[in-house]
Amino acid sequence: MASAKLEDRIRESLTARLEPGEQLRAVGEFQSGGDLRELPKATFFVNRNWWVGITDRRAILAKQSYGGKLLENQIFSVPRENVAVKGGVRRLHLTRLRITSPERKVPKVLRSMPSSRDAFTKALGNGDDPHEHGET
């Protein structure tokens, strides 16, 4: 599970990007790249960190620089219905988000750094098949 201190930093940073009346329901740190499904894309070889916030309306995806700062030109908004919690390695409490967006720079799959899968499943109101096991 992500540390409370990190979650507080993510929440604070993403709260500044909320629309009036919008509320954050879940936050966490995720990675893109390094997924076998991305071969032969060059992104397979580059892991990038993202801060993700799920609100009552949308998902906010904020890419981090290698120094840990948010890249202001790499912050995206995706409707909640275009984000789903999928698979992941349950024994490690990892969460995988599958994202549908026409924007090329928006990652299609994000894997959590250990975080609360239940918080994201609840915030998005969706989840994977309960019979699916150990997908990575």
Can you give keywords for this protein?
136 residues; alpha+beta; 7-stranded antiparallel β-sheet; 2 helices; 34% strand; globular; disordered C terminus
Number of helices: 2
Low-confidence stretches: 128-136
Number of strands: 7
Could you give a short account of the major beta sheet?
Answer: 7 strands, antiparallel
Give a quick rundown of the structure.
With 136 residues, this protein is an alpha+beta fold.
What does this structure look like?
The protein is α+β, with helices and mostly antiparallel strands and 136 residues long. The chain has 2 helices and 7 strands. A hairpin with a 2-residue loop joins strand 2 and strand 3 (58-64). The protein is globular, with a radius of gyration of 14 Å. The protein starts with a helix and ends in a 12-residue tail after the last helix. Mean pLDDT is 79; it is low at 128-136.
